[in-house]
Amino acid sequence: MIPFVETFNFAVMLLFALCYAYQMFYIVVRLIKKTPHTPARRLHRYAVLIPARNEQAVIGKLLESIEAQRYPKELVDVYVVADNCQDDTAAVARAHGAAVITRTNHRLIGKGYALDYALACIRERVGLRHYDGYFVIDADNVLDERFIAEMNATFDQGYRVVTSYRNSKNYGTNWISAGYGLWFLRESQYVNGARMALHTSCAISGTGFLVSSEIFERDGGWKQYLLTEDIEFSVANVVRGEVIGYCERAVLYDEQPEDFRSSWKQRMRWAKGFYQVFARYGGSLARGCFGRHGFQCYDMLMTVAPATVLTLLTLGVNSLTFVQGLLRNMRGVVLATGQGMLMTFAGVYVTLLLFGLVTTITEWRQIHCAAGKKVLYLFTFPLFMFTYVPIAIAALVRRVTWEPIAHNVRKDVREIIEG
What is the pTM of this model? Predict the structure, then answer.
């Protein structure tokens, strides 16, 4: 029994190492290779799309940050999609000079539907090609004053999809908000940053991205409606050979959940959405691994692949063996299996700690909270990531629908930086 479990654990560990070793390489690449800044030759015309559902508490700060952009105001039009709102979101938006698109549809619910509706309205009014590109920004975000200008510089290099540096409005609130914040900083700098340095495709992540009007005209709008419409959009375009760019100089501040219930609900949707994307696009990505854009297809395949299933299988095999050992009074089996599970836990903890440590050190000045909290939340970061295990289990068997997350952190960029 023990040899089988040891062999099984080693095989799973080896498989993980082989599949994801390139992400360790990403860290090295990012530390030694920087992406040069190329000034824009042209100032492009943009629309900012803001899907908003009952966001009256926070949308004003976002709109103020857009008003404060160091980019010609005549080249930026703001559209707020008041999507099934029951509050004063639309009134707040109009007070800040935004164009409001009201949508009421209680059957087709989700960000993808709101975006597609907004694009359809713009197509009817002025045509999609009236703008060179479309920003997609969440209502709870705020933008650094050079966000649009920096994104324009990357867009002007020829990238038809560009994502940004995703920071947090409320990193220092507790271990939950910090867990999100550190993960997004790592994703920005040590995943998308490395991809950009290697000239392979990045991936958009929820908010703070820019899409060329050519893409929306080709697709007839926004056509990704799964629970994680952002990763679905990324994968759908990568399969087509699109190379998504990343602009590290364009800083967006995002509000993170602060209580475990909200976090559970949000990450349950993400987990289910990743399963959906893998089921729909896994075959296409696998085939793409052997084509012209093989590495970026492989990278996206590893991003959406349900690695948690292997983790759950490993836990299941070890737990079953441990229980059998207890019931049969097999002391050696119990000790060996218990030690194996402990070593696995420790190994994963140390790996996640390493990711967090590198990110915390290099992004120290971008993490806006007290130094003591930065250190403390580095050690709780792996624990936050471990909570994905029960979420992944539940997402396998539960029906999950899109539900809004309440946002209440009203801060401008100055207040965020001052902590």
Answer: 0.92
